[in-house]
Amino acid sequence: MSVLIYIDHSEGNIKKSSLEALSYGAALAKKLNTTAEAILLGTVKEGLDIAGRYGITKVYHAADQAYNNYDAQVLTKALLPTANNAEVIVFAQSALGDAIAPRLAAVLNAGLVSGAVALPETENGFVVKKSVFSGKAFAKVKINSGKKVITLKANSFGVKEREPANAEIINISAASSESKIKTIKIEKIEGEIPLTEAEIVVSGGRGLKGPENWYLITDLAHSLHGAIACSRPVADDGWRPHHEHVGQTGVQIAPNLYIAIGISGAIQHLGGVNRSKTIVVINKDAEAPFFKAADYGIVGDAFEVVPKLIEAVKKLKSEN
Amino acid sequence: MKILVAVSKAPDTTSKVSFKDGDTKFNEDGVQWIINPYDEWYSLVRAVELKEADPQTVIHLVTVGDASNDAILRKALALGGDEAIRINADASDSYNTAAQIAEVAKQGNYDLIFTGKETIDYNAMAVGSMIAGLLDLPYVSAVAKFDLQGNDAIAIHEIEGGEETVQITLPAVISSTKGMAKQRIPNMRGIMAARSKPIKVVEPIASDNLTEIVQYELPPAKESVKLIDANNVEELVRILHEDVKVI
Ligand SMILES: Cc1cc2nc3c(=O)[nH]c(=O)nc-3n(C[C@H](O)[C@H](O)[C@H](O)COP(=O)(O)OP(=O)(O)OC[C@H]3O[C@@H](n4cnc5c(N)ncnc54)[C@H](O)[C@@H]3O)c2cc1C
Ligand SMILES: Nc1ncnc2c1ncn2[C@@H]1O[C@H](COP(=O)(O)O)[C@@H](O)[C@H]1O
Description:
The structure holds two protein chains of two kinds.
Chain A lengths: L1 E5 L2 E2 L2 E2 L1 H16 L4 E6 L16 E5 L9 H12 L2 E7 L2 H14 L2 E6 L9 E7 L4 E7 L4 E5 L15 E4 L9 E8 L11 E5 L10 H9 L3 E4 L1 H5 L20 E5 L5 H7 L4 E6 L12 E4 L2 H18 L1
Chain B lengths: L1 E5 L2 E3 L7 E2 L4 E2 L6 E3 L1 H17 L4 E7 L5 H10 L3 E5 L6 H15 L3 E5 L10 H9 L3 E11 L2 E8 L2 E8 L2 E5 L11 H8 L3 E4 L8 E7 L8 E2 L5 H11 L4
Parallel strand pairs in B: 1-6, 1-8, 6-7, 7-13, 8-12, 9-12
Antiparallel strand pairs in B: 2-5, 3-4, 9-10, 10-11
Helix pairs in contact in B: 2-5, 3-4
Bound molecules: flavin-adenine dinucleotide and adenosine monophosphate.
Flavin-adenine dinucleotide binds next to helix 5, helix 6 and helix 7 of chain A.
């Protein structure tokens, strides 16, 4: 029984989070002394043999345009015959992965751990560590069923390329079923890096006073090739779109670098960002609670500090 | 239109998260319990709005858990639910929880089943998707806008880096997130009316707990912050580039 990894894609490209899931699945297969295989439903531009680089031996591919749509009902049915032969099925957490993985688990009667942050421990049963209480704690969850489904939290394992190798591609024709969901339109924010995939995130709070000052956040983000985020009241007041709101009730992120500007650091905000590897806080109030959760801090006025910081980053980038 | 809203009990968002019994149980001392925010502010309030638009609409609430859930059911009834069902079972495993709700849903013949995007304690994002799987219904996750259109529904939901608008053939399962509706506070009339609304307690069907939490952990404590002078931002850039190597 193998480990099967679901490859998620968007606009013809494999998502970075799925490359991470491939790396995780391959490491898990090694631990379980079995093979790592992957499945892709739909069509992508790249050759799927590249999955070999991440330690995958076989990729099952159902190249049907119908599978490019967001429809967990149709995709789960298409996935089922292949998933039946696997012991563990791994997904990256994503809008689609979160919709399919639990459904597949329920249909297979497989135990699910969503939001895994580490490889399973297999010494004493099958135990997976996941994030709970919106990032404020972790739980080790034992899966007691024979079959298991895991969704991996972004940026918790890393994309790991091994030796160059090509995966074998096996074309399958999964029976397609009737769709009850029709896409009417997709709107993407052009040119912005999706928050959950970003390695650097620059985030602004109410301390910026109003949307007209957001150039401070976007300029710094662009100079660092990072994504843009905000605190909840900023989205509530319509200064920024809701999908940029991070925290307990917003997007939860774990970038390598999180820069928080004019954000107080309320517990609900910290819940969504405290898995970031390095946190920098810029706040004019030395008593702001965020400093307790930060690695580096500057006590100062954002309107003075941030323009200088943008200059310093640009200077660094031009020298390197 | 008949709507089922799944509501779960959750610790207030400001609760101190700590554990007991050798870090195997959540320490509930001093914890205030609320309706899981996604279930209340978004699912339930949107269902109530749909009922206001079409008074024929019936809203049933369902929760899986022991009698300590009755308080949140009363509050949900005060907000506008018509009737509540409590399935008297342990809700520690998503599959078991979903299987119990799916059974109630099957018997009630609902046009719409609303869940929250996730519970803020366990963060499984699973129960809605599982119910849909067990009943073979369409499912849309993280819905931020929802409207009915004849026998169909139109929903806008979050995807990576944007949003997608979809048309869904009902019956369907919808998981709600921010944007669906604005928070409401129960008014006196609602609270009075809720007193006489029924909470039906049903016993669970046979099902399995496929998972169990064996240990909790708190994140390692951060070392104290290193402060950098506001007139020396170059030093911050140098540290991030040379020492931490993140830029
Ligand atoms: C159920 C619930 C869920 C919630 N979920 C979330 C969530 O997911 N995400 C979230 O963010 N919040 C959430 N909140 C809200 C949270 O409690 C805080 O209210 C919110 O995070 C505060 O946002 P803020 O830091 O931008 O604003 P404020 O608290 O107003 O802080 C502004 C900060 O800016 C600083 N400042 C002011 N001027 C300047 C300047 N010129 N230069 C530098 N600094 C300056 C101030 O010192 C202050 O620290 C939630 C609340 C509840 C009740
Ligand atoms: N014990 C429960 N009783 C009723 N509904 C629940 C329960 N647990 C979860 N749900 C529903 O499922 C959603 C997702 O929960 P979860 O899968 O635990 O993140 C919640 O927002 C609720 O709508």
